[in-house]
Amino acid sequence: MQLQRGLLVVISSPSGGGKTTVIQELRRRCPELKYSISATTRPPRKGEKNGRDYFFLTEAEFRNKIAAGEFIEWAEVHGYLYGTTRQYLEPLLQQGETIVLDIDVIGGLNIKKLYPQDSLLLFLKPPSVKELFTRLWKRGTESTTEIVKRFSRVPWEIAKAKEYDVVIVNKDLTKTVNKIIEVIQNYKKHGGR
Q: What is the pLDDT of residues 68-96, one digit of tens each?
């Protein structure tokens, strides 16, 4: 008897789109789901821990892993490298787990190319550009220059959302998480493939 492969649930949004908050709530409500931990060269934000939130690497360490073929997907976003390691993800997929990935649009589309039958791409769209700017500003983790840089990518990211399986307007945390849970359950129930 062959075990059914797992499902990769990619959640992407522009910076400030509420992705981290949504995933934290999803983790609280759905502890049975597995959550991928990405590697990054970005410095840790306040409260982030290595191995829990991200695997924080130097650029040299990250590039060595690229050269060794250790990443399923990787991309440079806002001047930092982000990626998902094969070693972390493949065993979970083989065990039939549902794995949530918090990755950017480029990474999400790469996952879809590599795992077309095993992936579900969800894009969290902000209710408005003004709301997105407000969220980024209130977060207080980026300089004005960094916010402008992140903002310059938003139109492109929103345009790419049409290549995702589902677009959810992230206006209300509870409604957004309810919708994500519903989409995952329906996808798994109906095979989605």
A: 999 998 988 888 999 999 888 889 999 99
d(C-alpha 122, C-alpha 186), whole Å: 13
Q: ∠ CA(102), CA(13), CA(175), 5° rounding?
A: 90
What is the fold of 7-189?
A: Rossmann fold (3.40.50)
pLDDT at 2: 38
N- to C-terminal Cα distance for the chain?
A: 20
Whole-model pTM: value is 0.84
Distance of CA 83 to the CA centre of its chain: 10
- The answer to whether residues 19 and 102 touch, using CB atoms and an 8 Å cutoff, is yes
Domain ranges of the chain: 7-189
Q: Tell me the CA distances in angstroms from 40 to 59, 80, 104, 167, 172, one per residue in order.
A: 8, 7, 12, 26, 29
